[in-house]
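Researcher: I'd like a candidate sequence for this fold, 583 residues long. If you have to choose between options at a position, lean toward the conservative one.
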């Protein structure tokens, strides 16, 4: 009978003979019950064994942090995969609406988007809509659903469209009346018009700006046509907490006058970060009016791009006691004569900033850049003058003289210790005779000077003449840069001779000067002997109008198109400044 029922002769070591005999005498129903009990015991034992794994012993809040870290934004595939690992992970994920909020993607198909939206429950929502990323065709219908049913939950909304592509959600936008949780609003490239019973035509951004958003702290508008009066009359009274405002426009019809802009800024007492690009201009009425001072006590960062006159008027009208960052891009143009007025505005705006120890002055690609401080340190002062084209030498040009004297008058630069300069000779020749002396007399704490690929030889000549006068016992008290200890320069033989003459002259008056060179891999042509170069340099120092500066033409030319290290130098500076802007 044993062979008939196929009972094994030798029982498994894990089962007792009593249990095997119970199986042998049991009927089919009893065996089914025992199998069910064994399966349940196996599952329980497996779960208990898995509980000893390190991942299973993590607290729930730590597990959520891990999930949030590995979860890419606006992507649900990873979240769905994690939810299928085990029962605990699935329960944890399904009960965490914050994870589903992060995974919410407007490009998902409508049914799945609605399911994910349901799993977010009632938590505040963050939406990023870019019509260029709508590769599925579901984004606009999904955004319409959000605007109609869930806009009151939005805490952050970024919408980017292009002309008529956004018109499909216009109807839902008009029905919005309030967003009690909205803190960040960003609108890009939306400028199509809507019918309006009041004004005949309204811009789509105006419908967003008219929404009641008492918690709004950040507003970013780029490439949009909108009504500044809407911002002043509707947004400003309803959003008293606004601390960050960025307007980057490329449409002159959306620009505000300086008086309009000042009136708007006065309505935002909590403003801390202000960025304006092509967003305001100086009208004839602005030039005749005397706007009152606008105090922005909490503003720490001001970045703008404008004309010279508009920038000067804005800075002169603002009082910024907490300012730590000022960056301005000024369109100079060939006929600009307002550099001095603009630098007076810079002095007024930065009068309460901490003294800046670094000052870099560069020219290249028709850009003249004055940058104080470096890397990501604060405070920061940066002026970029674009379209600084070199004029006809026969036409008087006082722009650079006004700039150099204006820099010297900025109080926060008076304690500059590190100066780096790279300028074309053509620009230096535009300076009035005493401009560099005025500059160095006010920035008298400079201890280190570094020259770029384009060395400012007239600056060196100013120091030489001052040292020669001191050496002759004339006007000893007017000695320039008594704290100067070191000069760094490119390894150009002619320039090295010029600096050696300066070092010798200063050493004779008791001010030693160390000289270091920066190696250049650029090939050099064979020049005249050092003795000949020294005589030519002395002749040039005595009368630069009659004698020319000696040296290789590839280093001492005025042509901006010349292949030199200047292009690399200015490109590196612009890259560094772009990195700072990204932050």
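Model: Candidate sequence:
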């Amino acid at each position: 009978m044993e062979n008939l029922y196929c009972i094994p002769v030798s029982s498994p070591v894990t089962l007792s003979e009593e249990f095997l005999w119970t199986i042998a005498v049991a009927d089919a129903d009893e065996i089914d019950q025992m199998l069910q009990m064994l399966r349940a015991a196996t599952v329980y034992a497996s779960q208990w064994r898995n509980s000893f794994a390190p991942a299973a012993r993590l607290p729930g809040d730590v597990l959520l942090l891990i999930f949030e870290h590995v979860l890419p934004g606006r992507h649900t595939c990873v979240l769905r995969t994690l939810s299928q690992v085990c029962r605990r992970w699935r329960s944890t994920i399904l009960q965490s609406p914050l994870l589903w909020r992060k995974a919410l993607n407007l490009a998902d198909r409508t049914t799945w988007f609605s399911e994910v939206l349901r799993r977010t429950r009632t938590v505040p929502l963050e939406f990023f809509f870019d019509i260029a990323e709508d590769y599925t065709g579901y984004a606009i219908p999904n955004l319409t659903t959000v605007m109609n049913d869930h806009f009151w939950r939005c805490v952050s909304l970024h919408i980017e469209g292009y002309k008529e592509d956004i018109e499909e959600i216009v109807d839902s936008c008009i029905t919005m009346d309030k967003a009690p949780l909205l803190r960040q609003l960003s609108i890009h490239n939306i400028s199509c018009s809507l019918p309006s019973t009041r004004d005949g035509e309204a811009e789509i951004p105006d419908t967003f700006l008219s929404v009641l958003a008492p918690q709004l702290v950040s507003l970013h508008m780029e490439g949009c046509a909108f009504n500044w009066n809407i911002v002043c009359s509707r947004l400003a009274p309803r959003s008293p907490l606004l601390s960050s405002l960025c307007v980057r426009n490329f449409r002159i019809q959306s620009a505000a006058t300086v008086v309009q802009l000042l009136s708007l800024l006065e309505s935002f007492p909590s403003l801390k970060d202000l960025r304006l690009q092509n967003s305001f201009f100086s009208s004839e009425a602005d030039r005749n009016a005397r706007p009152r001072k606008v105090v922005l006590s909490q503003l720490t960062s001001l970045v703008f791009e404008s004309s010279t006159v508009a920038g000067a008027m804005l800075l002169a009208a603002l009082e910024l006691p907490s300012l730590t960052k000022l960056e301005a891009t000024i369109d100079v143009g060939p006929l600009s004569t307002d550099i001095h007025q603009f630098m007076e505005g810079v002095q007024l705006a930065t009068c309460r900033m901490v003294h800046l120890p670094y000052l870099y002055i560069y020219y290249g690609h028709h850009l003249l850049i004055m940058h104080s401080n470096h890397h990501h340190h604060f405070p920061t002062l940066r002026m970029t003058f674009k379209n600084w084209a070199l004029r006809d030498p026969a036409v008087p040009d006082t722009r650079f003289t006004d700039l150099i004297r204006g820099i010297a008058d900025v109080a926060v630069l008076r304690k500059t210790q590190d100066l780096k300069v790279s300028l074309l000779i053509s620009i230096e020749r535009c300076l009035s005779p005493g401009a560099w002396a005025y500059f160095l007399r006010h920035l008298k704490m400079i201890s280190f000077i570094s020259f770029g690929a384009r060395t400012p030889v007239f600056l060196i000549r100013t120091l030489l003449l001052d040292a020669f006068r001191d050496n002759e016992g004339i006007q000893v008290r007017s000695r320039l840069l008594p704290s100067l200890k070191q000069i760094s320069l490119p390894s150009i033989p002619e320039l090295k001779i010029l600096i050696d003459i300066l070092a010798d002259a200063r050493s004779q008056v008791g001010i030693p000067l160390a000289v270091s060179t920066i190696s250049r891999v650029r090939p050099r042509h064979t020049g005249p002997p050092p003795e000949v170069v020294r005589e030519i340099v002395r002749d040039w120092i005595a009368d630069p109008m009659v004698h020319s500066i000696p040296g290789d033409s590839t280093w001492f030319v005025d042509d901006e198109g010349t292949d030199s290290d200047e292009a690399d130098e200015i490109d590196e500076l612009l890259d560094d400044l772009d990195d700072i802007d990204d932050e």
